[in-house]
Automatic annotation (TrEMBL):
GO terms for molecular function: diguanylate cyclase activity. Coiled coil: none annotated. It comes from Agrobacterium albertimagni. Residues 91-226 form the GGDEF domain. SUPFAM superfamilies: Nucleotide cyclase. PANTHER family: DIGUANYLATE CYCLASE DGCM-RELATED, REGULATORY COMPONENTS OF SENSORY TRANSDUCTION SYSTEM. The lineage of its organism: Bacteria, Pseudomonadati, Pseudomonadota, Alphaproteobacteria, Hyphomicrobiales. It comes from the Bacteria. Its EC number is 2.7.7.65. This is diguanylate cyclase. SMART domains: GGDEF (SM00267).
Amino acid sequence: ETYHRINSKSTNSADILRSAINILTEATGSTMAHGEQTVVQMSERSKEMDEVRRELDEYKRIANTDSLTRIANRRAFDEKLAAVYSSDARPLAGLVLADIDNFKKINDAYGHPVGDKILATVATVIRSNVRKDCFVARTGGEEFAIIVEGNTAEEIYQTCERIRIALETTPFKNSKTGVNYGPITISLGFAMAADSEDAGELYAKSDIALYCAKNAGRNRTKPYEDGMKKDFTKSWLIYKR
């Protein structure tokens, strides 16, 4: 009943939250106003409130998950990245941006269903080659982001290389037709949070490092270095991923 009351009237997150608050207020208010309520009635109200909370938790999970790859989406990534700078102390964290090489050509040659399978597999490979506490998201198209906390630049570089090598050696073959779509490779760029003033600067530096990895021949990892921005500015207008 509670699920119906929320979803039958709601078209967006704000509506759902308002509906949930109304139900919770109604439930708690009723309990306070009727001291003679039986234990059974109070128990029913409690169950209804628990159901509302479960529905809200599920809605939040869906709203923050990429439906294709089952990892975090751009909305969740933006929130997590902002949280990296939530304290006054400079965090020991890094942002990795990764982009599948020549993905548009693969998508055009074999079709979107194949492209979708590749995206899902790449997400699995990334997730399988980072620590469980690393935050992994698909930020759009064929681009992924990884927020790594508590690691040095060298450790993050090794993580990137582990992902890159694992993907390069992952078979991408159609079992029915025998068509081999691989090898699929990925380029990665990263920057350290301690070297950036805020989330925007960190993202920009990581993105520049990614483009430099692409420009250097793809299928490689590049940490952000001073001077990259100048080189990137010269070439980005003519560069095509």
